[in-house]
Amino acid sequence: MAATYRALASVVMLIGFYVVALLQLAAVAALGVWLYGHTNGLVTGKLLLPLVVALGAVAVGLWRAIRTKNEPAPGLVLDEREAPQLWATVRELADAVGTRAPDEIRLVPEVNAAVGEQSRLLGLIGGRRTLYVGLPLLQAMRVDQLRSVLAHELGHYSGKHTRLGGVAYRGRLAIEGTIERIKPRNPIGLVFKGYAKLYLMVDNAASRRQELEADRASVQLAGHEAATSALRSLPALDAAWNFFTDRYVDSGWQAGLAPDDLFGGFGQLLEARREQIGKLQQDVPDREPSRWDTHPPIGIRIEAMAQLPAGAAFADDRPAHVLVTDVLDAGRRLQSLVVDLGNRQVLPWPEFTHAAIAAGMQRQADGIYRAAGRFTGSAEPGLTTVLDLVRAGRLGEFAEQFFGDATRREAAARFAGPMEMLLDNAAVRAQRARWQLSWGGPAQFVGTDGEPLDLAEIAKLAVSAETLDEALVRLAEMGIDPSAATVVQSRATADNAGVIGAIGNMKVDGVQHDLLILDRGLILIGGPGKAGDGEKRLRNLLESTPVATLATRHQFLPYEELVSVNVTREIPLKAELTLHGGRTVALQELYGSELLERHSRDNLLRVFERINED
C-alpha cells in the first residue's frame, strides 16, 4: 500500500512542480507585456532574461530526468558457482515473502544491502531485478543476521517498492536538476526550492513507511534476535569502516600508495577488534526522527520489531561469508572493479603500512627541515642542520616558532617531541627500523630484530648541547647516520590539500588574478578572464583539474612561507603578505570580485589570523 501511495504522491507532486513552472511562465509573460508597454524593449529584456533562463532550466531538468536510465550500480556480479549457498538462501527467502527472486546478485563495497529494479512505463511493467549485498556485511555478520537483512530487502520486492519507486526517483532527479541550474538569488529559484522541500517531505514519509513494511519480513523469516542484532550492527560497522579508512588507508592513499587487498584488510581488522565492535553494537544511536529521513531511526525500528510476530526461525551463528565460495577472492575482484587506483603503487598490507607511515613522517620532517633552512640560510637542510643549532645553543631560538607560548629554554626542552620524530625518520632512512602492521592496535616502530624501538631517551639527549655527543654516539652504535636524513621536498606542495574557498577577479600586486584558498596555501591564477564569470569559472576549474596540478601550473604560495599579514581592510579585502626574506605580496579584492562560497573571505581572514598568531 505504501508503494502505491508513494508512486501516486510522487506523480501528483511532480505534476504540481511543472504546474508551478507553467504558472510562473504565464506570470513572466504577463510581466513582459506590462514592462514592454511601460518601458523600452532593452529594459524589458534585461529584467526578464534571468527569469526566462530559470524557466529554461526547468525544461532541461525534466528532459534529463525522463531520459535517465536506472542502471545497476557498480559491483561484482556473483553467479551460482561463486555463491551457491547465497543464491539458495535468496531463492528460499523470495519464495517465503511471495515474490520473484532477483535476476542477479551484486557484491558492493558499502556497509549496506539494497534492491533495484529496471522497471518500464513508470513502474507499470516490471524489469530486471538486482540484489546488492555489501561485502562488509558478509565479513561481519552471522548467517541468520544476513538472512534478516536479505529478507528485508526482498520484502521491498514483494511490496512493489522498487517497481513504482522509479517515479519517485525520476521526480527527485527532475527537481534537483532544475534547482542546480538556477542561480541562488533568482526569485524563481526560491519558489522551486520551497516546492522541492515539500516534495521531499512527502516522498520521504512514504519511504519510511516502506522500511517498516519490509521489517516485517525480516522478523518473520529470521526472528527477533537476528533481525534486531543485525540492525544494531550497522552503525558499528559504519564506524569500523570509517576507522579502517582513516587509520589504515588514507595516509598511504594520499602518499600515492594502495593496499593490494583493501577489503581483505577490513576483514582482518573486524576479526582483530571483534570485542570492541561488539561493544559498539550494544549502543543503539539515540536520535529524534526527522521529516527528512528516508529511513526511521534504528531505535524506532527495533521498538516496532518487538511488536511483530516472529516465524519459526532457527539460529545460525556461522559467519555469513560461508555463503560465498571464496570471499577473499571476491574482495580482490571487487576492488579491481570499484576502486580507481590511478597510478598508485600497489603493495601488500605490511609494506603498505610501513611505506604510508614513513611517507607521512617524512612530510612532517620536511616541514621542520624547511623551517631550519629558512632560519639558517641552508640550501639543503636536514637533521644535521637542526643538531648544529643544538650545539650552537640556538635550538630554543629556532624552536620558538613551534611553541608560541614557551620561552626559548622551554621551547628547546619541548622540542624533544619533534626531535624523536626526526630520529625515527633517520632510522627509517638508514633502514634500521620500520613500522610493523597491527590490526589490533597502532602500528609498532621496530628495529631490525623485530623488537620495539624507542628513541625518546636519545631525543631528550639530542636537544641539549651538553648531552648531544652522547646522543650521537648512541645513534652511531645503532647504525643511524644523521647526515643521511635530509629534506626530500625542499618546498611545500599542494598534494592532498583541501579547498576552503576561492575569490574570482581580484588583484595580486596590481594584476588581475583568481585566488584559490587551500588549507596549505594560496594558488594565484593570472589572466583569469572576464569579470562576472568568476564563480562559474572557479567551479569549472576545480571540477576539471586536481588542486595539486593547479598548484604546479600556477603560482603557489604556501602559508609556511608567510611571516605576517597586514590586513588594512576586510570588506572588500585588502592585505599585504610578508614572506621570509622580506618579499611582499599585495592582495586587493575588487567590488566586482566573486566569492566561490559565501564564507571564502572569512576563511581566508581566519588563516591570516593564525599566521599572525604563530
Beta content: 15-25%
What is the tally of helical segments? Answer: 22
Which word captures the global form? flat
- Based on DSSP secondary structure assignment, what is the total number of beta strands? 15
Proportion of residues in helical segments: 55-70%
What is the strand arrangement across the widest sheet? 12-11-10-9-15-14-13
Q: Could you report the average pLDDT, rounded to the nearest whole number?
A: 85
Organism: Verrucosispora sioxanthis
Cofactor: Zn(2+)
GO molecular function, one term: metal ion binding
GO biological process, one term: proteolysis
How is this structure best described in words?
The chain has 22 helices and 15 strands. The chain is of the alpha+beta class and 614 residues long. The chain has 4 domains: 1-68 and 160-222, no CATH class; 71-155, 2-Layer Sandwich (Zincin-like), CATH 3.30.2010; 348-484; 499-613, PH-domain like. Keywords: Cell membrane, Hydrolase, Membrane, Metal-binding, Metalloprotease, Protease, Transmembrane, Transmembrane helix, Zinc.
Q: What's this model, at a glance?
A:
The protein is of the alpha+beta class and 614 residues long.
Core attributes:
614 residues; alpha+beta; four-stranded mixed β-sheet; flat; seven-stranded antiparallel β-sheet; Zincin-like; 15 strands; 4 domains
